[in-house]
Amino acid sequence: MLTDGGQERFVDTLEGVEKGGQRAARLQRKLDDEDFGAVFNADLPDETRGTLLRAYDDGDLSASETATVARKLDEPGNSDVVSTIRTLDETDQRRAFELIGETGDNGVTLISSVDTPATRDLLRIDTGEIDAVRNSLARSLSSGSIDADTVEQFAEDAAELERRGVDGLADGPIKDIARTGDPSNIPDAAFEARSAVKLLEDGSDIDEIGKKVILSDDRRVEFDIVQSNGDLAEVKNGDFTRASGGDVRKLRSQIEDNYLQYRDSSSDTMTVVFSDPIEEIDEDVLDMLDNLDDKYGNVDYQYVPRTE
């Protein structure tokens, strides 16, 4: 049922939104009275409601999702979310509505917790399974599995990689986050994107992220970052400050059997990128890498912070 305010907003929609009457009529046929009333009883800016109705009419939202968005935006304490959405262009507003329509409170939490530039970056990315990425980030942020800094840094880095046209973004970090069933894997994918952007900032040219190749012994392997000059990078977001003997052997095998077999010549540098400062990395790990450098040449390591 429409409240008195809802009736006034309904009339305003009929008069102020292009094809407002037709859009409202189509929506009403799909919803019960309570849900239809929610769309107009919600105290939203006229232009926000107009965008919401256009998103429904164009198929970006289902009827029930449209009602969900109106309800969530109208809840106490969510005025900041409405304000953030109003700063976006219409395409990004629709994507924000899709996020809230599909994830409810989780989508609201993401938009309210992440700063506006990062929200804009996250909504503007248009690569691969990015809708599923937004939903995964929203759920994981709400559950406490990741923090807002991780979301903000990933949004900034993924947007930069897309802007630069780096190959592998869709099949690498974005797919990894979209399809993960374990939120603890999200920081790993985010750090891969962070490491790639840091290489670009340092003047490198990236050929591909997550490049899949078949080695001479017919093994199929994936390299985290392959640069255009032949240099390679293996990204390690895990804790290597206390590495077991098994961890050291596994990393040595990965580098020696995969990366060093693939690189074109010993002049190409193979770098291990750690998310912890080098002075905190286990000495056995560093000694192993130094030994590989002595044996093969140009095996290096560096530290990249998870967030700027």
Would you mind describing this structure in some detail?
The chain has 308 residues and is an alpha/beta fold. The chain folds into three domains: 1-105, no CATH class; 114-203, no CATH class; 205-308. The chain is 60% helix and 10% strand. It contains 15 helices and five strands. It has helices spanning 4-16, 20-30, 33-41, 46-57, 63-74, 79-86, 90-103, 105-113, 116-124, 130-143, 148-163, 170-179, 186-201, 245-262, 283-296; strands at residues 206-214, 220-227, 232-236, 270-274, 299-303. It has a five-stranded mixed beta sheet with strand order 1-2-3-4-5, with helices on both faces. The model has no long low-confidence stretch (mean pLDDT 92).
Give me a quick take on this structure.
This protein has helices at residues 4-16, 20-30, 33-41, 46-57, 63-74, 79-86, 90-103, 105-113, 116-124, 130-143, 148-163, 170-179, 186-201, 245-262, 283-296, and strands spanning 206-214, 220-227, 232-236, 270-274, 299-303. The protein has three domains: 1-105, no CATH class; 114-203, no CATH class; 205-308. 60% of the residues lie in helices and 10% in strands.
Q: Could you list some keywords that capture this structure?
A:
3 domains, alpha/beta, 60% helix, five-stranded mixed β-sheet, single chain, 5 strands, 308 residues
Strand order within the widest beta sheet: 1-2-3-4-5
**Proportion in β-strands:** 5-15%
> Which sheet architecture does the biggest sheet show?
5 strands, mixed
Q: Radius of gyration from the CA trace?
A: 24 Å
Specify the helix fraction band. 55-70%
Number of strands: 5
What spatial form do the alpha-carbon principal axes imply?
Answer: elongated
Structural class: alpha/beta
Which runs of at least 5 residues are low in confidence (pLDDT < 50)?
none
- The total tally of domains equals 3
Give the count of helical stretches: 15
First-residue to last-residue Cα separation: 50 Å
SSE topology string:
HHHHHHHHHHHHHEEEHEHE
Mean pLDDT: 92
